[in-house]
Amino acid sequence: MDMSSGENNDGTEEKPLVLTGDTVAAWELFLRLQYPTIRILPEALTAEQLLTILPIANKYRMERVETDIIQELKKFTDYEGSINLVAASRIVGSDELYQNGVQRLISFGISPNSTQARRIGAGATHAVMEALMDAVKAAYAEEVASLKAQAKAEVAAIKAKSEQEISNMNSEIATIKLRATEEKQTIKAKAEKEKTAIRSKAKEDIAAIRSKAEEEKTAIRLKAEEEKAALRSKHNEEIAALKAKRHNNQRNGQKNVPTPPKGVAQNVMGAKGGFR
């Protein structure tokens, strides 16, 4: 057979080889014998290339190759690497790898775009979006709780300040009342003292007036008695003179001797002890 003629196209995409009667396990063992030391080098393949190989390795149960690809994909720790990890989990059907990739996506706090969502599937997209919404709700609830706590603390501070101000006002009012009471007592004591002084002075003045009145009364009484005594003495002298004159007249034989005036005689006779 002339292989260069181009007439035999078996093994191409247009005409793939059909392995009739052979098993995948047999081919895997056969390939392991042919290439016992083959390994995947990180610097040799990109993540896109690894994901291209992974379906073939999974389809033909090449566990060693599949494991190496997954281990290499785990080394890509950015957001796109986490997308690739979830995509790989869907290829190999690993729930553990799926959960690992989803948790890594959630940790970034970023929702996938439409292209990334198609790669990871609706379930993973929903899980990531739901987790992000829960995180937003939790953050909102935490912020609300923080605001409430802050508001409560501010209200408590305002209340404490108001109570302190009220206490200070009450203290000032009590001080003012005490001062007013002291001033009132001082004024009252001063008024009582002045009242007592006025009473004392009034008593002294009254006593002085009474004393002066008594003195004047005594002086008037003494003067009256002196005048009365002088009048009595004068009357007595006049009566004595009349008596002496009558006696002389009688001795000289004169009959018509004048008698003392009637009023004078009565005044003289009304004096204490009569004529002396």
What does this structure look like?
This protein has 276 residues and is mainly α. 77% of the residues lie in helices and 0% in strands. It has 7 helices and no strands. It has helices spanning 24-34, 47-59, 63-74, 79-92, 95-108, 114-252, 262-270. Helix 3 (63-74) runs antiparallel to helix 4, helix 4 packs across helix 6 (114-252) and helix 6 (114-252) packs across helix 7. 10% of the residues are buried.
Record the SSE blueprint:
Layout: H1 24-34, H2 47-59, H3 63-74, H4 79-92, H5 95-108, H6 114-252, H7 262-270
Helix pairs in contact: 2-3, 2-4, 3-4, 4-5, 4-6, 5-6, 6-7
Summarize, please.
The chain is mainly α and about 280 residues long.
State the helicity in percent bands: over 70%
Question: Cα-atom Rg, whole angstroms?
Answer: 74 Å
**Integer average pLDDT:** 82
Structural class: mainly alpha
Succession of helices and strands: HHHHHHH
Strand content: under 5%
Features:
single chain; 276 residues; mainly alpha; 7 helices; 0% strand; disordered C terminus
